[in-house]
Amino acid sequence: MAKKQGTAGQESEAAEGAKKGPTLADVRAWIQSKAGRAKLLPRNDPYWGAAADRDLFVGYRSMANGGNWIARWRDVDGLHGTVGKQHYHPLGRVDEADKDAYTDAQKAARQWLKKMRAGIKSSEVVTVADACREYVSRIRKEKGDATATDAEQRFNRTVYAHELGKVALDKLTTLRIADWRDWLGEPNERGKVLGRASINRTLTALKAALNLAVDHKHAPEVLRTELRNSKPLEKADNRRTLFLDLGQRRALLAAAEGDIRALIEAAMLTGARPGELANAQCKQFDARTGTMQFIGKTGERKVFLTPVAIALFKSAKKNKLPGAWLFDNAGAQWQKHVWNEHVQKAAERAASPPGTCMYVLRHSFITEAVMGGLSTAEVAKITGTSLAMIDAHYAHLVQASAERLARITLI
């Protein structure tokens, strides 16, 4: 009789244990295999395995359809804030076709832990494309829409759809960046080739985005070394060697269609930076005095306009409020990627030299002004640049003017 009572007691204990669920030892064993994981009931809280490293654990979140891996690490050294704080990191869905799924999850967790211990705390900014998007978001807040849109368009064309964009930040090397830089110089689907200067500017934007990722602890510090070793192309300052003569400038202007024509003409007549013209409001132009208050990267400057330029600016300002854009694109502000596209189309129709862009018009203005006899100091003031820059790139033209003057009988 006692024996029967004992048997009944054991059965009762077993039933009670079944209600409580598997033991910790059971869970740690079961999550290692597909058959074992199938025994675990779906729930929000993960089932945790044995320690995969110091204070590191891999968990399995069972769901109605499959499951997910998750890593947990307790920061006992205070590397990421309060000592003893728990950090979690999703490792992705369980691949039940992989017999080593649990081992692979442990490896992924250790890789995450390695980043955490190195001070890398991001689980959202993982790839090069992620870093570029965060950079665009940051400079939009700090420098405005125009600068952010310029970077965003560069990344749209060169990073997001390229294999480089998928590379994890901790896997990026100088060689990968160099391969991408060289790819930028290949003809696109339209047969157009990006100029060496444009390639270097795009590389500079990428490096700025990646350095920001390191600053924000999304990428290891060693990435800075890879970036320092990523060199720009040499002999890339071709914008100051391309000059459009009077006939070429007139042909380009004649080929311009729509609102871009006024922007091109303004650049030809003033030598202003295209951004200064695109950002200009009507109130900056004073028709009474024939002056324009340009606002650019070197600050503000007041410039006296020629009669032709005054007429153009008056026409552009007509029937507009003081705060309206002086040169607009159907009422909207011009953006760099938009005016570049319009200028490129006009250049194709006008058969302009390869590389023709808005900056070339600025260079052509400065060249004509210096060749026409204006002093380098005057040209520097008009165009809002330094005298040192004018002397460095245009001083040879002053000499040419002196030589022509020497051939003229003055007395």
UniProtKB/TrEMBL annotation:
Region: Disordered, residue numbers: 1-22
Keyword Metal-binding: no
Keywords carried by this UniProt record: DNA integration, DNA recombination, DNA-binding
Record-annotated Core-binding (CB) domain positions: 123-214
Family annotation (InterPro entries): CB, DNA_brk_join_enz, Integrase-like_cat_sf, Integrase_catalytic, Integrase_recombinase_N, Phage_Integrase
Domain Tyr recombinase residue range list: 239-410
Pfam families linked to this entry: Phage_integrase
Gene3D superfamilies: 1.10.150.130, Intergrase catalytic core
Family: Belongs to the 'phage' integrase family.
Protein's UniProt name: Tyrosine-type recombinase/integrase
Naturally occurring in which organism (per UniProt): Rhodanobacter lycopersici
Lineage: Bacteria, Pseudomonadati, Pseudomonadota, Gammaproteobacteria, Lysobacterales
